[in-house]
Amino acid sequence: MIFLLPFVIIVFDTMNRFRAHAPVLQRTGGGECILILLLTMGMLFAACPAYCTNRYVDPNGNDNNDGSIDHPYKTITKAVSMVVAGETIYVRGGTHTYADPITISKSGTAGAKYYLFAYPGEKPILDFSSEDTGERGLQLNASYWYIKGLDFYKAGDNGMIIEKNNASYNRIELCNFYENEDSGLQLANGAANNEIINCDSYYNRDVNQGNADGFSPKLTVGTGNYFYGCRSWQNSDDAYDLYLNAPTDNVTTTFENCWAFKAGYLKNGSAGIGNGNGFKMGSSTNHHNVILKNCLAFQNLKEGFDQNHNKGSMTLYNCTSYNNGGYNFEISEAPSSGYTATVTNCISHGPTGATRNLGTFVVQATNSWKPPFVVTDADFASLDPNAAYGPRNADGSLPSIAFMRLATGSDLIDGGTDVGLPYNGIAPDVGAFEHIDGDCQASGHINWADLACLVSNWLDSNCGTCNGADFDGDSEVNFYDFSIMADNWLK
Fold first, then answer.
1. If exposure means fewest CB atoms within 10 Å of the residue's CB, which of 75, 249, 310, 408 is most exposed?
2. 282 vs 301: CA distance, rounded Å
3. Over its length of 491 residues, how does the chain's per-residue pLDDT go in tens digits?
C-alpha cells in the first residue's frame, strides 16, 4: 500500500484546492471529494493488477491457502487456476515434486501477460521423477507467458513442451532442463514467435537415445522462434534439432550466441547411439529457414553444423566449429530453387575429423579456410573447452571464457565481412567471438583482471605476445598497450 501514498497526497491536495475555489463543495461537506478519492483509488487498483497482486507457491505450502506470501499454495497447478492476466506467480526455492504434468492453457495478451518466476534469489527445482514414462513436465498450450528461473528435472518425456492452440509470444528465460526422458524443451504444433533466452539443456536421454535433444523446434513447429544465449550439451540425440514433418513447411528459426557441444554423449561421458549433431538444420522434404549468428559447436559426436538434407535457406554468420567427430560444417545438397545457403565469417578448426563438406552452391566470404588465412592453434587464446560447462555470469549471460576466442595478433581479427552484426575495430572478426583490444584474459570483457595481466608483464620487451598483454603487436608492454586498454575499459 505504500506505493499509493503519493497518489493519495495528490488527491487530497486536489480536494483542498477545490475547497478553496468551489463553495459548493464546501457547503456539501466534501462528499464529492470523497467520491473523487474513491474513484481515483479504484482506477489505480484497476490499472496495476501485476503491480498489486502476486501469487506464491512453496513446496511446503497448501493448495487450500490463499496464495499469499505468508500462506502460499503448494502447486503451480493451483496458482495457474487462480492467476489472472497481468499477475505474477512466484515459485519459492526448493524441490517441488509432481507426479502429473503441469498444464497451462489460458493465454494472456501483449498488454497483459502471465508471469511464472522463480522467487528472487532462490532456485526452484520442478522434480517430475514420479511421473510415468511419456508424460511431459510442463505443457504450455497458451500464449503470452513469461517463465523465468525454473529447473525442469526428470520428466517422463519433455521437460517442457510449447504446443497446441498455436502457443506463441512466450518468453522462457534462465531455465534449466536436465535428465528428462526426451528433449529438454520442445516447440511443436504451430508454436511461433517464442523467445528462449539464456537457457541450458543437458543430460536428457530417451530409452532409444534417438529422440532426446537439448532444444527441439521441430516436427510441426511454427515460425519466428528465437534462441539467444542457450547452451546444450550431452543430450543423447542432437543439441538443437530442427527436423520438420509435413505438412509443416517454410518456417524460420533464429539462433544467436548459442553453444552446442558433446551432443550424442551421455551423462557419464560415454558415446551414445543417437545422431550426435550440434545444430541439425532440417529435413529432406521441408524448408526450414535457419539463421545462425555467433554460434559455437564443438566436440559433438557427429557434425557441428549439419544440413540434414534441409531444402530451406541456411544462413551462418560468424559461427565457430571445432573438433567435431564428423564434419565441422556439412551443407552438401543444394536447397530448393529460391532458397540459399550462406556461410560467412566462420571458423573451422580441430585435430580430428574432416573439417567441412560444403557444396559449390554455398555462398562463402572470409571464412577461415579461405585465403589469405592459414589457421593454427596459435590463433586462439585457448583450446581448452572445460570452462564452457561453468556457471553463467551474474546477469545470466554465457560464461566469459577464453576458449576459441582469437589470440592477440591473429589475422582473423578484423578479417571478416560486414554482415550487419556489431563489431570492434576496422572490420568484423572471423568466428563467434569478437576480439576487444586490451582483453588480456581473453574473456570478452576488459576489467581489473586484464589490468593485473598488463601489470604482470609491464615493460617486458622481446616477449612475443607477452601473455596477451602486447595489444599493439610490437613485442613490448608499455604505455601504448596501457592506452589501448584504457580506450576499451569496461567494455
1. 249
2. 18
3. 333 434 333 333 444 443 444 433 333 444 444 444 444 444 444 334 434 489 999 999 999 999 999 999 999 999 999 999 999 999 999 999 999 999 999 999 999 999 999 999 999 999 999 999 999 999 999 999 999 999 999 999 999 999 988 899 999 999 999 999 999 999 999 999 999 999 999 999 999 999 999 999 999 999 999 999 999 999 999 999 999 997 889 999 999 999 999 999 999 999 999 999 999 999 998 999 999 999 999 999 999 999 999 999 999 999 999 999 999 999 999 999 999 999 999 999 998 777 999 999 999 999 999 999 999 999 999 999 999 999 999 999 999 999 999 998 999 999 999 999 999 999 999 999 998 765 655 666 566 566 676 676 765 666 666 666 666 566 676 655 666 556 565 55
Phi, psi of 82 (to 5 degrees): -100, -25
Q: Are 163 and 138 in contact (CB under 8 A)?
A: no
Residue 403 pairs in a beta bridge with: 382
> From residue 14, how far is each of 22, 24, 47 by CA, in Å?
12, 15, 21
Angle (CA) 41 46 50, round 5° = 115
Which is nearest to 301 in space by CA: 355, 350, 264?
264
Q: How many other CB atoms are found less than 10 A from the CB of residue 148? A: 18
Residue 20: strand, helix, or coil = helix
Packing angle of the helix pair 5-21, 31-47 (nearest 10 deg): 150
d(CA 373, CA 355): 15
Residue 216 contacts residue 185 (beta carbons within 8 Å): yes
How much is the pTM?
A: 0.84
Torsion angle in degrees (nearest 10) through CA of 154, 157, 160, 164: -160
d(CA 434, CA 415): 11
**In a 3-state reduction of DSSP, which class is residue 485?**
helix
C-alpha cell at 408: 592477440
Cell matching residue 235: 543430450
Catalytic residues, by residue number, are 280
3-state secondary structure of 45: helix
> Using DSSP, how many helices (H) and how many strands (E) does the chain show?
7, 32
Query: Grid cell 526422458 — which residue?
Result: 181
Phi-psi region of 250 (alpha: psi -120 to 50; beta: other; left: phi over 0): left
Q: What are the beta bridge partners of residue 480?
A: none
Task: For 225, list phi and psi in degrees, rounded to 5.
Answer: -75, 145
